[in-house]
Amino acid sequence: MAHHRRAELLSDRAALRTRMAAWRESHQIVALVPTMGALHEGHLSLVRLVAARADRLLVSIFVNPAQFTPSEDFSAYPRTLEADREKLGTAVDAIYCPPVADIYPADFVTSISLEGPATTGLEDRFRPTHFKGVATVVAKLFLQTTPHLAVFGEKDFQQLCVIRQMVRDLELPVNVVAAPTIREVDGLAMSSRNVYLSEAERAVAPLIYHTLTQCAERLRQGDEASRVLAEGVAILEKSGFSVDYLEWRQADTLLPATTIEQPTRVLVAARIGATRLIDNIAV
Ligand code: AMP
Fold first, then answer.
1. 205 versus 69: which is more confidently predicted?
2. Does the first or last residue of the chain, that is N or C, have fewer Cβ atoms within 10 Å of its Cβ?
3. Distance from C-alpha of 277 to C-alpha of 121, rounded to nearest angstrom
């Protein structure tokens, strides 16, 4: 059998600390790619994006209980560490996959919560404790891994804004890099949750991207926003989606957009069957 070369597995914070100390000692520039595993091309593109900017690449894989609301899929979330290791191959130097107790010891009581982008009525309206969980775990991962760079996908655009805000507010010494969204050939944004889709749901799922594209095009042409968005919702609902939101927002603040003079995005969250999908594009 062929012997696969693979990245070093750092299974707990002690192993991480030893590795980080060695890298720091030899003045290596470290890039962190935080993930929840079940890796796909989107995750791999994040790794590739910073490969040239860092001496050492570290992927963290941690399914963060704090960012799931109780009704969500925390226990069902796909955990595929062996396949993830295979996919990463030697594209990264190490994979940090701590047990929950290494992030949240039994007596853990601190959390980081933001206003601003975390409270603009998008994801926060449907997942009220989500960004508190995200900000807290990302801050902790930053402190444990002390990276020079950290990469986040535009796929989770509100999350990216929240991380940027937190890094600014706390002056965390991390350079946040944004990565473009990687899509399937039919336009569906890659997501670990796409495996939940039935064949029929998978067949209609690209309508999310097509609707975003259409809305962005009409907004660029100057069509009235409320009408554009209402028609977008109607198209999605006619095909069986339940739309949580479809909104036009300023790209930097996530406040409602009124003009295309500044960068703006259209953001959507829609449920099909039991699966909730999110996506967004630049206008
Ligand atoms: P997750 O494992 O879903 O928490 O995602 C880990 C990182 O990968 C986050 O920064 C996501 O925004 C990013 N990501 C997820 N899907 C994609 C995609 N299709 N294209 C680009 N980045 C993505």
1. 205
2. N
3. 17
CB of residue 62 inside a 6 A radius of ligand 1: no
Q: Check whether residue 118 and residue 42 sit in a common domain.
A: yes
Query: Does the CB atom of residue 156 touch ligand 1 within 6 A?
Result: yes
**Separation CA 179–CA 150 (nearest Å):** 10
123 lies in the same domain as 12: yes
Give 4's pLDDT tier (boundaries 50, 70, 90): low
pLDDT digits (tens, 9 = 90+) for 166-184: 999 999 999 999 999 999 9
> Which atom of ligand 1 is closest in space to residue 37's alpha carbon?
2
Say yes or no: 174 and 71 in one domain: yes
Neighbours of 195 (CB within 10 A): 12
Q: Is the CB of 136 under 6 A from ligand 1?
A: no
Asked if residue 250 and residue 149 are part of one domain, the reply reads no
Using the mean position of ligand 1's atoms as its centre, give its distance from the Cα of residue 192 in Å: 8
Of these residues, 3, 27, 43, 210, which one is catalytic? 43
Strand partners, 264: 250
DSSP 50-63: HHTT-SEEEEEE--
Q: Is residue 2 part of a domain?
A: no
For 257-277, write each residue's pLDDT tens digit. Answer: 999 999 999 999 999 999 999
The CA 155 to ligand 1 mean position distance, Å, reads: 6
Q: What is the pTM of this model?
A: 0.96
Query: Which ligand 1 atom is at minimum distance from the Cα of 190?
Result: 19
Active site residue 130: no
CA of 25 to the centre of ligand 1 (A): 31
**CATH number, domain containing residue 74:** 3.40.50.620
- Nearest residue to 270 via CA among 262, 261, 279: 279
| CATH code of the domain covering residue 269 | 3.30.1300.10
